[in-house]
Write a sequence for this structure.
């Protein structure tokens, strides 16, 4: 064998070795084209059973047990009392259990535990409170219809066996298709002319979140859960809806000092997103909060429902190419500005409660002006609380959010002026 032949032979050996290595790698880490569908029985609510059949999803879902602060310092998964940072809550929610216990939300696995431990829940609490805490909602509604809402909460929690929010809230166990089990969401969408059963998969990737991350109220007497969307999903449109005293509902509580009939906002995240740039451009909740991941060649949707800032590459980079540092700083800027105005709005609402209380104690106070002051403050507190109760600290819709807080601050000042006018004084 001459020199040329030896070189060619050596080159051929290298090619064979390289090809073998590539083929071996492909064989060992062969991508799975799809998750193998396993049909589970209807009514299977045990998370471990689901986890045995869908291990990657289960593994990521278990990360929701982690408790950590948010990357930007707003929200996060540590259940500290919000009043530690916002002492104005003691005034604004005086006369309501939120003044006693208002912690940051934790991951879905803590839903039932935190409900049981909440100081806002007493022996008289109704079953409506379990609506978004467990997949057993499906069973309760099948058995009792809306009658479950007026049952004792403790009774339903005992039946739910501490199975918190899990796969069955959002997936049909037999087909794994996305589904909505909250009848309040289904009914609210029907009133808006939307049939949830005909929704596309991409729409369902937001509907499954919206069925719980939304504003609601309890119908007086029945405790039926109702979403206030008949006039629209902006804070202004929802306030207009509430002003009509729908189904006999007038307010959530009377503030003890000012006697303002307060509307308590309940995490209107879906509404914020719906009217924000991501919602308007068709980016679903899951696109950002449950991004696609890969492990051993298998693609799956992360079920670690957390801040997209913890998964910036997977959550944001598919659409944004500006770089992770710039994206993070932009989000933090939105949230810093929102927090500044939110805190300011909350403090102004508290001052307005105090001004109205003082005015109401003056003999011969102008009752017409005092009623006007209370109405102005009722709206101001709703706008502030709409933002304070949301989980994104303004990011879901920064333009609407800052405008809403600006209106709250202005309305609080108007309420103070009206209280002063009612009392016949320039300052209180």
């Amino acid at each position: 064998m001459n020199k040329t032949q030896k070189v060619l032979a050596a080159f051929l050996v290298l090619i064979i070795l390289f090809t073998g290595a590539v083929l071996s790698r492909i064989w060992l880490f062969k991508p799975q084209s799809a998750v193998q569908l396993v049909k589970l029985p209807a009514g299977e609510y045990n998370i471990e059973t689901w986890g045995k059949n869908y291990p990657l999803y289960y593994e990521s879902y278990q990360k929701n047990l982690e408790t950590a602060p948010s990357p930007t310092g707003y929200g996060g998964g540590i259940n500290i009392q919000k009043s530690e940072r916002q002492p104005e809550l003691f005034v604004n929610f005086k006369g309501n259990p939120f003044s006693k216990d208002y912690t940051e939300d934790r991951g879905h696995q803590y839903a039932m535990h935190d409900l049981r431990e909440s100081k806002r829940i007493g022996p008289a609490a109704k079953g409506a409170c379990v609506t978004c805490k467990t997949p057993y909602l499906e069973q309760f509604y099948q058995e009792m219809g809306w009658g479950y809402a007026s049952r004792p909460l403790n009774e339903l929690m005992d039946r739910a066996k501490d199975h918190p929010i899990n796969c069955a809230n959002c997936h049909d166990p037999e087909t794994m298709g996305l589904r909505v089990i909250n009848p309040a969401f289904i009914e609210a969408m029907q009133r808006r002319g939307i049939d949830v059963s005909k929704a596309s998969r991409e729409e369902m990737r937001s509907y499954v979140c919206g069925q719980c991350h939304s504003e609601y109220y309890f119908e007086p007497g029945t405790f039926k859960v109702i979403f206030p969307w008949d006039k629209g999903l902006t804070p202004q449109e929802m306030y207009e809806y509430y002003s009509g005293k729908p189904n006999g509902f007038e307010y959530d509580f009377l503030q003890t000092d000012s006697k303002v009939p307060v509307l308590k906002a309940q995490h209107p995240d879906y509404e914020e997103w719906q009217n924000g740039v991501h919602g308007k451009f068709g980016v679903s909740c899951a696109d950002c909060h449950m991004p696609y991941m890969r492990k051993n060649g298998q693609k799956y949707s992360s079920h670690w429902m957390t801040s997209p800032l913890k998964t910036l590459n997977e959550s944001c980079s598919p659409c944004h190419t500006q770089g992770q540092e710039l994206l993070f700083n932009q989000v933090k800027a939105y949230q810093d500005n929102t927090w500044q105005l939110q805190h300011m709005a909350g403090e102004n609402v508290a001052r307005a409660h105090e001004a109205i209380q003082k005015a109401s104690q003056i003999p011969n106070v102008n009752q017409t002006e005092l009623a006007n002051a209370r109405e102005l403050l009722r709206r101001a507190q709703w706008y502030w609380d709409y933002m304070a109760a949301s989980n994104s600290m303004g990011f879901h819709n920064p333009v609407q959010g800052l405008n809403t807080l600006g209106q709250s601050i202005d309305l609080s000042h108007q309420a103070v002026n009206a209280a002063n006018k009612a009392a016949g004084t320039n300052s209180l």
Remarks:
- The beta strands are 217-218, 225-226, 253-254, 261-262, 292-295, 298-301.
